[in-house]
From TrEMBL, chain A:
It comes from Caloramator proteoclasticus DSM 10124. One of its GO terms (biological process) is spore germination. It is a lipid-anchor. This is Germination protein, Ger(X)C family. Coiled coil: none annotated. Transmembrane segments: none annotated. PANTHER family: SPORE GERMINATION PROTEIN B3.
From TrEMBL, chain B:
This is Spore germination protein (Amino acid permease). It comes from the Bacteria. It holds the Pfam family Spore_permease. One of its GO terms (cellular component) is membrane. One of its GO terms (biological process) is spore germination. Belongs to the amino acid-polyamine-organocation (APC) superfamily. Spore germination protein (SGP) (TC 2.A.3.9) family. The chain crosses the membrane at residues 26-46, 58-76, 88-105, 125-145, 157-178, 190-214, 243-259, 271-292. It is a multi-pass membrane protein. Signal peptide: none annotated. It is found in: Membrane. The lineage of its organism: Bacteria, Bacillati, Bacillota, Clostridia, Eubacteriales. Its main location: membrane. The keyword Calcium does not apply. Keywords: Germination, Membrane, Transmembrane, Transmembrane helix, Transport. It comes from Caloramator proteoclasticus DSM 10124.
Length: 364, 300
């Protein structure tokens, strides 16, 4: 009696739970990349999609389609008018936001990326110099699609130039919502027939404020990120007299108030490994002396460059690119957030570099 | 059975001696309404979240129907099967503990600082956490029905501590990772949190969490259904098996009322404070009265 009741129950459940009338897998497109641009008069949205096409057994091709709509999802449904297969949004590997679009604001992109449950939160999000069309128009070389190339590019950037690997939608959303923070995304650009990292894109709330070129972005990264890796070149006299130090940084931020002004102290602990040293190579010096020499050179170099970037941030970017205001908000309460945001220009930022050479490599 | 402090009597008997027959009738009915509402909210919550995340192709009504059917099947034979189910699901609950541990070093401590911004908002927020713990009143019914009451007190305390720690820990980790602003704007903050992970093969923790959590919710609803049925049959004097069926129907109807998530939250926001207040008053009144009135020991 009991088992028959259970059996009936199971049969009953099976009858109700089927995928009848759903699109099957072989009838799906795989969308891998989406680009956001603006159309004419900044009123319309241009939505670029890169997708994979499967023809027969082994033939895989890629296609790019551009759709225009008043909103993101209108453009998406317009796409279905000329695509011959259905598509899913969960397979997207990278979002590329055009420069003009980013200047107008990306509130709608953030909203739909969080709200739409079909979208993945780990998708890479970058800003492109120029329009995103230029990126997707290229022919991929190393990967099968441009979106994959963008993703790999950003993920690989982690090991150098003090970049972090926090470039997913979730990180952008966190930067947007958390108090005292600004969105900072990696920026890419078209170069010859491929793409490269162009620097950092800094947002004020949801609008692009500034694209920082890569030479400055390295030092911004250094002050901004904790536990990142990069190379610092100390050039005395051409490449024949130079020292390369691979640095891993640890960052700590302290906030204080000094005569009405906010004072940030960024303590940077740099652990260096000498990778190249042609400067003291021929001299038969004491090992300790070489290390001390390199250390002071490194600290001086960093002090100079970092203070330069701090000045530039205060006077030119006029926005907190170092991600330090969150510490002020954490200390002085969230009701002061607006005041802290506005006072960035007047606040004092002190960088304290503490370097340590961990190893000199195979040579002494 | 002569352990001091563990002389539990059955609910109706105790209530009749404390409050009299007429008030007991009303209180029992109110308790049954409380459990029916809670169970309906839990089942509709399960249906809403499942259709939102994993089984988009199903209608929530089908899910509600199937869940109530399963719960009916589970609780029609009394407490024993529910107890077995609870024991089984308890070990799964430990995994819910393990998932947030993954996020501990991913958050930033500035998201929870300053710890106290102003005290008044801290105090006004306290009652809302009571709703999360409602359902504990089930112990009024269950404890007298347990044959081996030796470990009841310790297990009760351990369960309370476990639930509180789990709830606080999950809330803490969520805010540590996302900050309060996003947490307060999301429909399901913890589901968002588990969806942000990147793991090979299963891509993220979301399906794993939905599986464990779904089991847990099913068990919770089954327990509540036992409470609802018990009080319903005590109040109306309909035999247990019949009232189990009737209360299933009522629960399904209540759950149908709360199908889109916004309807559910607006309804629970309106009704829950009264229910929690009622249980609070009942418990305090029962405690005070029991200090003065000597309740006879259970003969059974």
């Amino acid at each position: 009696m009991k088992s028959s009741r259970l059996f009936l129950l199971l049969i009953f459940s099976l009858l109700f739970t089927g995928c009848y009338n759903r699109v099957s897998v072989e009838k799906l497109f795989v969308i891998v990349g989406i680009g956001f641009d603006v159309g004419k008069d900044n009123k319309e949205i241009e939505n670029v999609a890169e997708y994979l096409v499967f023809r027969g057994q082994r033939e895989i091709d890629r296609g790019v389609s551009l759709e225009i709509g008043k909103t993101i999802n209108e453009a998406n449904s317009n796409r279905q008018l000329n695509l011959k297969k259905n598509y899913l949004l969960g397979t997207i590997r990278a979002y590329v936001i055009g420069e003009e679009r980013a200047k107008l604001g990306i509130k709608d992109i953030i909203d739909t990326c969080v709200r739409d449950q079909e979208r993945n939160l780990n998708t890479i999000m970058v800003v492109s110099k120029g329009s995103s069309k230029n990126i997707f128009e290229q022919v991929p070389k190393e990967e099968s699609t441009m979106a994959d190339e963008v993703k790999e590019l950003i993920e690989a950037s982690y090991s150098a130039n003090f970049f972090t690997n926090n470039a997913g939608v979730k990180d952008v959303v966190n930067m947007y919502y958390q108090e005292g923070r600004n969105i900072v995304m990696p920026a890419i650009e078209k170069k010859d027939s491929t793409i490269k990292i162009a620097g950092l894109a800094v947002f004020d709330r949801d609008k692009l404020k500034k694209l920082i070129p890569i030479e400055e972005a390295i030092y911004v990264n250094m002050l901004r990120n904790n536990d990142v890796k990069g190379n610092i070149a100390l050039v005395m006299d051409g490449y024949e007299k130079a020292v390369d130090v691979e640095c891993i940084t640890k960052r700590k931020v302290y906030v204080d108030r000094e005569d009405g002004k906010l004072k940030y102290i960024i303590k940077l602990n740099v652990q260096g490994e000498i990778k190249l040293n042609t400067y003291n190579f021929e001299e038969e010096n004491d090992e300790q002396k070489i290390i001390d020499d390199v250390k002071t050179q490194l600290v001086n170099n960093l002090n100079e460059n970092l203070n330069k970037i701090v000045e530039r941030a205060k006077n030119d970017y006029e926005i907190d690119v170092f991600d330090i205001q969150r510490y002020a908000v954490a200390k002085y309460g969230r009701e002061n957030e607006e005041r802290i945001r506005e006072s960035f220009k007047d606040s004092e930022i002190e960088v304290v570099v503490d370097a340590k050479i961990r190893s000199t490599g195979r040579y002494k | 059975m002569n352990n001091s402090g563990l002389n539990f009597v059955e609910y109706t008997q105790a209530s009749e001696e404390l409050f009299g027959k007429f008030l007991t009738k009303i209180f029992t009915l109110l308790f049954s309404i409380n459990f029916l509402f809670l169970e309906g909210a839990v089942i509709s919550g399960l249906a809403n979240e499942l259709t939102f995340s994993t089984v988009k192709f199903l209608s929530p009504y089908v899910l509600i129907f199937l869940t109530t059917l399963l719960i009916y099947y589970n609780s029609v034979d009394g407490l024993k099967i529910i107890a077995r189910l609870s024991e089984l699901v308890f070990y799964l609950t430990i995994f819910i503990f393990l998932i947030p541990i993954y996020f501990i070093n991913k958050g930033d401590v500035t998201n929870i600082l300053p710890l106290v911004n102003n005290y008044s908002s801290l105090i006004t927020a306290v009652p809302t956490t009571f709703f999360a713990y409602s359902g504990v009143e089930l112990s009024i019914v269950i404890i007298p029905l347990i044959t081996n009451k030796m470990g009841a007190k310790g297990a009760g305390i351990a369960a309370c501590i476990f639930t509180t720690v789990l709830y606080t820990f999950i809330t803490f980790v969520t805010i540590l990772y996302m900050g309060w602003r996003l947490t307060s704007q999301l429909q399901y903050p913890f589901l968002y949190l588990v969806a942000t992970t990147e793991i090979a093969v299963i891509s993220n923790f979301e399906p794993l969490f939905i599986f464990i959590w779904g089991n847990k919710i099913f068990q919770t609803a089954a327990c509540m259904h036992f409470g609802a049925t018990y009080f319903f049959s005590e109040a109306t004097k309909i035999p247990y098996k019949k009232s189990c069926f009737i209360s299933s129907l009522i629960v399904a109807l209540v759950a149908l009322l709360m199908v889109p998530e916004y309807k559910r939250s607006s309804l629970t926001d309106k009704v829950m404070p009264y229910l929690v207040l009622y249980i609070f008053i009942w418990l305090i009144a029962a405690y005070i009265l029991s200090l003065y009135k000597k309740v006879k020991r259970n003969e059974k």
